Structures are given as C-alpha cells and as structure tokens.
Amino acid sequence: MEIFPDWQVIFDSLTPTALFSFSALVSAAFVLFRRYREWAIKLTAIFLVSTIALIANNTLVYIASLFIIATLFTEGDYLLTLIAIIRGDKGWLDLQKMIKGVSNPPQKDETSRKRSAMEYKILNTLWTKQVNYYADYSKLWGFTINVGAIDYLEFREAADRLLEEGLISRGDQGMYFLTGKGIKFCADNYTTFSNPDDQYWPEEKIKKDNIKTAVDGARELSF
C-alpha cells in the first residue's frame, strides 16, 4: 500500500483553468500583507482574468483579457487614453502631452484657476494622513486608488494637475505623496480648502493636537 500520493497523476489531472484558479487563491492570500498588497492584487486580477478567458474560450475574450492585463502594469494610462478618445476628451489628451513634454504651454499660477473638488479631495487626504501619522515629517504618507475604481479617471486627471504644479509627487509604485511645496501649501491653506471632510477615508478626522507640530515643521522644511 502506497503512503505517498502519486504526484504525476495529480499533475496530469491539473488543467490550465485549475492552475490559474489555484494561483489566484494563493496570490489573494498575500493581499492581507501590506508589503505585498499592490502586486498581490495585480497578480490575483491576472489569474482571475486568465481563468475567465480560458473558460470562455472565445477570441474576443482573449483579446479583452490581454488588454486588461496590460493596463495593470501601465497604471491604466492606455485604458484612460482610450476612454478619453472614445468620449472626445481633448482636455485629457492635451494634459498628457503637456506632462510628457510634447507641448510647452505657458505656466499658469496655481492660484489663477479654480481648483477642482477632486484636487481638494487628494490634498485633504494627503494632508490629514500626514498630520495624523507623520506630523514631524520623519516619513511621507502616500496613497493611490485602484485602477478599477469608479472615479479613477477623475482622480488621475486631478493628480496630474497637482503633479504639474509640483504640489505632489508620484513614487515608483504609483503612490502619491505631498512634496515640500505641497506640504507648505497645505500648511498655509488647509483652513480654506473646499469641504475638508471630502477625502478618502473620511471617517478618520485630522488630529488637532498634531496640527501645530505639522504647521510649524512645514515652515522649517528645506526640501
């Protein structure tokens, strides 16, 4: 009587669909760990999309799956550009050209235009969390939202405008942080921000005991 299983039989019985499904479950488990969360989410999505494509066994589904997987590694830029083309959003396309250096329109003063609600939402979120967690600026707090979020296109457009102004920066993993200029801007103007409660994770209020430390520290920043 054999005690150990016949691994060859097990491997032979595994189908690509089963392998992708199992891989999705394994990668999903790593979502629980903050350090691996970003890549775990991407890998889980890839395995799930691949599983659906194999089950569907349809050419159009294969093409759509490849496109979706590609956007996971380009932060959605291709997908967002395609959406902009379909809906005729010339403003989005012009903004992308400006950021990539294709065109160089005259710089506008950051106070000369009306800031959008989403820009305030990003600034409110970054400032609140920075004050709450790192009021001494020993570290910078950053965040981003999932490419599948309903407001992702609006979020990216607003973030790109803030990047252009130099108020925020974007890390290698797609996270957004306040720059030195952004910290000073928030410290000087946070009381005038439109609807300070409009931010991501609004249930977490700014810690008033930390505000003075953050504001005083902002004046001494050299970066």
Outline the secondary-structure elements.
Elements (H helix, E strand, L loop, with lengths): L6 H7 L2 H14 L7 H20 L2 H14 L4 H11 L2 H10 L17 H17 L8 E2 L8 H14 L2 E3 L5 E3 L1 H10 L18 H12 L4
Antiparallel strand pairs: 1-3, 2-3
Helix pairs in contact: 2-3, 3-4, 6-8, 9-10
Helix and strand run: HHHHHHHEHEEHH
Structural class: mainly alpha
What percentage of the residues does DSSP assign to strands (E)? Answer: under 5%
Query: What are the segments in which pLDDT stays under 50 over at least 5 consecutive residues?
Result: 101-112
The span between the termini is 71 Å
Rounded mean pLDDT score = 75
Number of self-contained structural domains: 3
What is the topology, as strand order, of the major beta sheet? Answer: 1-3-2
- Secondary structure tally, helices: 10
Share in helix: 55-70%
- Biggest pleated-sheet summary: 3 strands, antiparallel
Overall spatial form: elongated
Short characterization:
With 223 residues, the protein is mainly alpha-helical. It has helices at 7-13, 16-29, 37-56, 59-72, 77-87, 90-99, 117-133, 152-165, 180-189, 208-219; strands spanning 142-143, 168-170, 176-178.
Q: Can you characterise this structure?
A:
By secondary structure, this protein is mainly alpha-helical. The protein has three domains: 14-73, no CATH class; 77-104, no CATH class; 117-219. The protein has helices spanning 7-13, 16-29, 37-56, 59-72, 77-87, 90-99, 117-133, 152-165, 180-189, 208-219, and strands spanning 142-143, 168-170, 176-178. Strands 1-3-2 form a three-stranded antiparallel beta sheet. Helix 3 (37-56) runs antiparallel to helix 4 (59-72), helix 6 (90-99) packs across helix 8 (152-165) and helix 9 packs across helix 10 (208-219). It starts with 6 loop residues before the first helix and ends with a helix.
